[in-house]
Amino acid sequence: MAENGTDCDQRRGGMIKEQHNGNFTDSSLSERKRRDREERLNIVLWRQPLVTLQYFFLETLINSKEWTIKLWHRRSILVSFLLMLAVLTATYYIEGTHQQYVRYMEKKFFWCAYWVGLGILSSVGLGTGLHTFLLYLGPHIASVTLAAYECNSVNFPEPPYPDQIICPDEETTEGSISLWAIISKVRLEACMWGAGTAIGELPPYFMARAARLSGAEPDDEEYQEFEEMLEHAETAQDFASRAKLAVQNLVQKIGFFGILACASIPNPLFDLAGITCGHFLVPFWTFFGATLIGKAVIKMHIQKLFVIITFSKHIVEQMVSLIGAIPSIGPSLQKPFQEYLEAQRIKLHHRSDSGVPQGENWLSWMFEKLVIVMVCYFILSIINSMAQSYAKRLQQKMYSEEKTK
């Protein structure tokens, strides 16, 4: 850490010397910012653990202080919120006939909040993004699809589901389940997850809008890259630059329907749409309304259909049979998949006392470990990102001090 401080002092001295010699140019400033950005990216736990943890805690303290000041300036809203919370708490604990409705609303609220939160984590990312569709929503839709085809019904309990989905005790006709019935069964959680991803797209919009309105020099790399892209729009040659320009032009020229089109398909460049809308001062409800409709309605139905069709009973059986046809290793790979599907059928029919072994399948074990690894990586990325944010504060402070000398 002392070495980092010495490097900063040496660069500061060299910078001031360049200013006095009259050799300080825009190109040297750009080069220095590039070096500073590379230095920040090296502040990660596996390279500089002590520095990263120190910067993370300092950034956490600064953010806590900033949020406390913001809440203090909005005391009336905070007091109103606390009063409403007190009324809801009293309603929750006072006995009466209203308790059945309270319990129902409680279950629905936490179920929706769970999926909205996962959607926000997937979209806002804090530098990496937790792929909650692949880890949570996709497997949930797949399990409901497999259960629906096995039970020939979707009349198992309404969400939030219990620990296990159990087939209802009713006579059903083979093949009576429809695609629309499965879509309707998972619509609430899918739409809530989509709404969460729409909320997670707001930070780039607000950042770009605030920078444009204040006229201040933006402090975000993505925004700086966006402005550089606008300056060199005519000379863009590579595919990535052309794709970014296509998104920017679509949003800027078509407006609501351009944003809707970008939000309705899997689009890794959608952050650029948020920055574009903020930069060109697109009204908030135009941006958020189009994003919400695109992600929570259109895109989510496309993703649901893909998962449901993929995990339909006949397609799953064909996939398992194709695995068995692989030369040499096919039968050994096919066996755990067959055991897993058979175990799921037994669970759905609640025949836990049957003769089939109830041991943990290696597929479920691998998935659980994958989830743990992804969550741990996401937490590490948050720590690294906040530490790099604090390093950026130090560098910006250094720039300000040099300008005043």
UniProtKB/TrEMBL annotation:
GO terms for molecular function: phospholipid scramblase activity. Residues 8-20 have a biased composition (Basic and acidic residues). The keyword Membrane applies. Keywords: Membrane, Transmembrane, Transmembrane helix. The keyword Zinc does not apply. Residues 1-33 are annotated as: Disordered. GO terms for biological process: autophagosome assembly; autophagosome membrane docking; cell junction assembly; cell-cell adhesion; lipoprotein transport; mitochondrion-endoplasmic reticulum membrane tethering. The chain crosses the membrane at residues 77-94, 114-137, 250-266, 272-293, 305-326, 370-391. This is Vacuole membrane protein 1. It comes from Strigops habroptila (Kakapo). The lineage of its organism: Eukaryota, Metazoa, Chordata, Craniata, Vertebrata. The gene is VMP1.
